[in-house]
Amino acid sequence: MMFSSKKKLPEVERVVKANDRDYNEKFQYADNRIHTSKYNVLTFLPINLFEQFQRVANAYFLFLLILQLIPEISSLTWFTTIVPLVLVISMTAVKDATDDYFRHRSDNQVNNRQSEVLINSKLQNEKWMNVKVGDIIKLENNQFVAADLLLLSSSEPHGLCYVETAELDGETNLKVRQALPVTSELGADISSLAKFDGPDTKLMQNSGKTKFKRTSIDRLMNTLVLWIFGFLVCLGIILAIGNSIWESKVGDQFRTFLFWREGEKSSLFSGFLTFWSYVIILNTLVPISLYVSVEVIRLGHSYFINWDRKMYYAAKAMPAEARTTTLNEELGQIEYIFSDKTGTLTQNIMTFKKCSINGRVYAGEVLDDPGQKKEITKKKEATDVPGKSQSERVLHFSDHSLMEAIELGDPKVHEFLRLLALCHTVMSEEDGAGQLVYQVQSPDEGALVTAARNFGFVFKSRTPETITVEELGIPVTYQLLAFLDFNNIRKRMSVIVRNPEGQIKLYSKGADTILFEKLHPSNKDLLSLTSDHLSEFAGEGLRTLAIAYRVLDDKYFKVWQEMLEDANAATTERDERISGLYEEIERDLMLLGATAVEDKLQEGVIETVTSLSLANIKIWILTGDKQETAINIGYACNVLTDAMEAVFVITGNTALEVRQELRKAKENLFGQNTSFSNGHVLNESKQQLELDSGAEEAVTGEYALVINGHSLAHALESDVENDLLELACMCKAVVCCRVTPLQKAQVVELVKKHRNAVTLAIGDGANDVSMIKSAHIGIGISGQEGLQAVLASDYALAQFRYLQRLLLVHGRWSYYRMCKFLCYFFYKNFAFTLVHFWFAFFCGFSAQTVYDQWFITLFNIVYTSLPVLAMGIFDQDVSDQNSMDYPQLYEPGQLNLLFNKRIFFICVAHGIYTSLALFFIPYGSFYNVAGEDGQHIADYQSFAVTMATSLVIVVSVQIALDTSYWTVINHVFIWGSVATYFSILLAMHSNGVFRIFPHQFPFVGNAWHSLSQKFVWLVVLLITVASVMPVVAFRFLKMYLYPSLSDQIRRWQKAQRKERPIRSRRPQTRRSSSRRSGYAFAHQEGYGELITSGKNMRAKNPAPTAGLEKMLYNNTSWIENLCKKTTDMVSGFSHDKTAKL
Amino acid sequence: MHIALLDLLFLLIVDYVSFRFLFAPRNCLLNFFLLQIDYTGTEPSSPCNKCLSPNVTSCVCTINFTLEQSFEGNVFMYYGLSNFYQNHRRYVKSRDDSQLNGDPSALLNPSKECEPYRRNEDKPIAPCGAIANSMFNDTLELFLVANESDPTPVQIPLKRKGIAWWTDKNVKFRNPPGKESLEEKFKDTIKPVNWHKPVFMLDPDEDNNGFINEDFIVWMRTAALPTFRKLYRLIERRNDLHPTLPAGQYYLNITYSILFLWLCAHIEFKRLSLSYVSYVTYYPVHSFDGRKRMILSTISWMGGKNPFLGIAYITIGSISFLLGVVLLVINHKYRNSSNTADITI
Asked: Least CB-CB distance to A930: which of B76, B172, B225?
C-alpha cells in the first residue's frame, strides 16, 4: 500500500508496507517516542550552563569575573562576584532540572500507554512508544490515540468512526472519519495503520514553540538596566578622567610614597585601567540578584494564585493555576479583555425555560432534581469516555397548567410538543442500562427535545425513513418524508412527516423574524400575541424560536416531492432550485407558539463584568456565534447595557460598506465634530491616528460596537483597520460575532499593536488558542473537556468569575508589589554603590572600595535580600475585600503609575541622596577625629564599618517604612537581617577567623572597636535620620494633602479594622428591556442530509449487497458535502446575508 | 502620630548631643582642650624650614608655643598629615597581613601585593609593602619651659606604649615565633628601602619592637581620608592636684630622621637596587602640598572635639523639629477625616 503526504517539506512521499517492520525500517522513520524534555543526566550540566551564559546578565557577570582576575584592574576580589553568580546560576539550574524532571515524567506517561499491535499475525500489547510506522493497530472504543493513523476499517457500518480531537483542537464534538472503501470490510473493532510517528505527528508538528511572553515591567526593567549601564559607563569615564588628572597632578608628586607599577607608567593608561576597576566596583548598581529576586517574587505570587481558596472551584475540585510564573504583575495592568462566549461566559448548557403555546405563556419553576427523572441531557457524545461522564444537573421544567393542558388533550399543546419531538436532528441511543440517551448536535435542540420528553412526547428512535415517538405512553411511528435542513440563510428547519393516520404535516421551527413572514394570514391575532411573548422572553435574555406547522395535501406533496427529486438530480443550480422548493412548501404555516431556551451564564458573570468595567477594563466578546446570540449574551451578562447611548452594528459585506458603516458610527459618536472623516482615504489615516487620542476623551456616554465576522475580515484590512480601532476603542464594549479563530487573534493583535495597552484573552476552546497565545495574557477555562486552551494559556481558571479576583486582587497586588520592590531595589543599590563614587574624589580615584569586600559580597544577597523579598511577596496596600469593592483601585496599574521612568528617577534620586548622606556625614565626622580612648579612629577600616552599619540600618528603616502590611515574616526578615549583619560582622572581625585566614579577614577587632564607640553610633543615628526624614515627611504630607484612593481606603481600613460590617455593595440588577428577540440556533448545516442518508445509523438488517455500492457512492458524496460545508463555515467567508437587527 | 513622637525623641537626643559638642570646651566639668602646631616648615619664617633641604646629618628644629590654659586629665599627642593618600588602592593593599602576623613562611616570602617593595637585594623585605615603607619617622619631643626662677626646661614624659588598638597589638601584629632574639628572627630579611634602620631596631623595649612596635602598628592602620591624624604619644595624668600640662611656655623639638628616597623610574624587573637610590631626605610632605602637624588634645566622653557632628546635629535637629510641628498640626487637622464618606473616587 502506498501513502503519500505533503506534511514535511523535504519528504514528498512516504512509502510504507503495512505490517512489514523490516521493510519499513529501511526508511528510518522516526519512532513513536515523544521527547519534550531537554536534558538527560549527562547533558544537563554542559547544556544548562551554556544556556544560562547565553543570557546577557549572566554573561555580563562572567565578564566582570574575568576582569577581576586581572590584578591591575581588580578592585574587588573575585569572590564578590563569584558568590552571587554561583548562587544565581545554581538556583536557575535547580529550577530547570525540576521542570525537566516533570517533562520526563509526562513523556514517560504518554510513551508507556498501551496499544494493540499486529505483530507476526498476532495481536500483541505494545507500548505506544514502540509503535513503528506501518504497524497495524487495533483500537477499541474510548482509547487514546498517540500517533497519526490511517483508518482501515471499523465495526461501525460503512467503516465510519467517530474521533474526539479535544486534545488536538479542543473541540469536543465528534468528528466522523471513514475508512477507505477497499479496506472497510476487514471488520474487527477498529484497525488502523500508523502513518506518522513521534515527532512527525500533526500534533508535534503544529505545536510550534510558544512565544516567550514578557511583561511591560520586564521591558521597562530592561530599558532601565540599559540606562543604568550607560550611567555606569559615564561614571566610569568621569572617574577615569579624574584618575588621569589626579595621577598627573597629585599622584606624580606623591611618588615618594606611591610608586608606579611597572607597565602602567602613564596617567592615561592608569585612567584606562581605573575605568575598568570602577566598572567592577559600580556593577552593584545592577546587581545580579535583581533578576533572581524578581523571579522569586513572581513565583510567590503564582503560588498565592494557586492557593487561593476563593478561586477554588469546589464542584470540580479545580483550583486556579498560574501556568506561567512570569506574568503576574501584568494582571494588574489589563485594559482590554477579549472573551470567548461559549464555555467562558456561558456554560453551554441550554435549559428550556418558557414557552408560548397558542397565545398562552407557560413558564414553570425550574427545579433542580438530579437523578430523579431519567432524562439526562447528554450532549455531544456518542462514545462514553469514562472521564467525561459528568453528572450534570438536570434542569427540569414543570408547569402545572401545562400539565393540565396536556392531560386535557389540548390539540395545540399536543401538536407543539409533537413538533418538538419530531423536528430536530437529534440521534437517540440506548446506553448500557437501557436508558435513552440523546446525541445532540446543538445544545438548543437537546433542550427542546428533552423538554418534549419531559411532557410525555418522548423521541425514541429514528431510521432514515421513520421517527418513532412515544406520545403519552403510546408509541407512534411517523414516516419521514422530507427533511428541510437548516442553514444560515433559511434560519429554520422543517420536517415533513406522515402520521399513522396518513396525514402529511410539515413541522417547522426557526427564527421568529423569518417564520412570521411565512404564516397564514389567519394567524394575525395569534401572531401579535406570540410576538409580545417573544419580546418578553427575549427581554429576559432567553433564546427564542418560533414554532409552526402546516397540513399538507397528499397530491400537493407528491408534486412537490417529484420536483424536489428533479432538483436533486439537476446538475446546474441545484442548490438554488432546492431552496426555491423549500420556500414554496414552507408557507401558509399555522403558528403554534414559541419556545424560550436559556443559554445559562456561568456563575457570577454579571457581577464580574460589572466590576471589571468599573475598573475601566474594556470587555470585548469574540464569539463564533451568530450576531443575535452574541448580542443576546452581551446583554445578558451586562457587557451591553440599556444605558448605552447607541449600539453600532457593522454587517457590511464589502470593504467599502464596512468603512462607510464605521464612519457613520463615528459620526454619530462625535456629532458634527468629525467632518474630516468623509474625505480622502489616503490622507486621512494619519490624521485620524493623531486625532483619536484627543477624540477619545471627547466622547461622552457609553457606546458599543457589534461587528460581524465577514465585516471584520474587511475591517481588518490595513486601510480600514484604523477606522475600526478608533471606533472600537471609543466604545465601552465590543462584540465580534461569527469570528474565526484566526480573526480572534487578529483583533487581539490589532489592539496590541496600536494601543500600547495590556490585553487579556480568556477562552475555553481550541478556537481560542490563537487569541490566548497572542494576547499579553491568556487565560484558559479549565475543567472543560478540551485541554488545548488551558495548555496554551498562562493562567487557568475554573470559572469566568474568578477573573475578577485574579485581576482586581492578585493582579493588582502583584503589580503594586513588583513596583514597590523595583523602586526599593534601585534605591537600595544606588545608595549602596554611589558611595564609591563620592569616595573616589578623596582617594585619588584609585578605585578603592569604601566597604569591606565581604560586605560588598553579602550586602545584596544576605543583608538586604530577604526583607525586600518579603515586601515584594506579602505587601498589600488595601485588603483583598477592599480591592474587590473598589474596582477603581485598579486604574493606577493601567496607567502605569506605580512604576515608570519618572518614578524610577525619583527612586534613583532618593538613592543618590542617601548615598550623599551616607558618605559626607561620616566624612565630616571622621575628619581629624579621635576616639573616646584617645586613639585615632579615622582609619579606613573604622570608616568602612561605620558606613556599612549605617547603610544596613538606613535601608532596613527604609524597608520598614515601605512595608505597609506587616506579617510575621516581614518582622523576622527585617530584624533578622539586621541581626545577621551584626553577627556576621562580629564573626568576620573576630580573632579566630583572622588567625585562620589573615589575608581574607584583615578587619580583625574592628567591629568591636568601632561599635563600642558612642561616636560611631551618633554618626549612624545622624545618617539614618538625615536620609529617612525627608522621605517620611514627604510621604506624610502626600498622604494627608494629596491622598490617592488607596491611601484613603487604607486609612479607612485602619479606622474600621475592628468593626467592619459585611456589606454587599453591588446589588444585582436584572435587566428589563424591550429589545426584540434573541433568536438562536446553534446549528450546523448538513446533519439533515446525514440523517436522511441514514449512514450514521446502525442498520438493523444488513443491507442487500446490491445496494451497497450505491450506498457507498452516496456515502462519500455526503461526506464530501459535509466537509465542504464545514470548511465554508469555518472560513467565515460564506457570504450569507445575515439580516440586520 | 508615631512619626511625630519619634521626631520628638530624636529632638531630645539632638539637644543633648549638640549641647555637649558645641559647649563642651567651655564646660569646666569636661575639660576639653585642643592645640595644633603646624611644623611643615614650608614658610621661610618657620624654624623648621632649614630641615627641608636634604642634610646627611640629622636635623632638629624647635617650635615654641604657649598653653593659655592647663590641660587636665590624660593628654594625647598626635601627629597629623594632610594630602597624604593613605587610602589609595595601590597603597592600601600593599601589605602582607600574614607576614605582619608573624607567619614564618610569609616573612621570607611576602605576598605579591607588596610589589615592588617585596624583595630587595634578593632578600625579602620585612615589613614589606608601600605602607610600611613610608612609615612616619619624625621624632617629636615636648619641653616645658619652667618659670623664670628655674630656666632648665623640663621634658614632658611621653609614653610610647598604649597607643595602638589592643587587637592590633595582640592579635593582628606579631613577631615571628621562636625563642631567639628579634635580630636573629629577622636575619634573612632586609629592611624596607626607605628606612634607615631595620624593623628589629625600632625600639629598645623588646615588647615594643619588631612588628609589634606601636608606632609601626598605628602607621599600618591606614587612614580613611587624605587628611588624618594618628596617635603619637600619651601624656598621662599624674594626680588630681597637678594638671597634666600646666599653662605656660613650651617648646616642641622635632628630630628628623633620614629617609632613603628613590624614584619610581628606578624599579626594573620588579626589583629594587640600593645603587639606584638617588638621595636622602627627611620625611617629605611638601612635595605634594602636604602638611605636618602636632596636636595635643584631651578627650571627652565621646572622643575628641568634633564640631562637624555638633553642627550637623543642630541643623538636622531643627529641621526635624519644624517638620515635627508641621506634621503634628496636619495630623491633628486631618485625623478625623478617615471614614468611608470621604473616600472620593
From this structure: B76
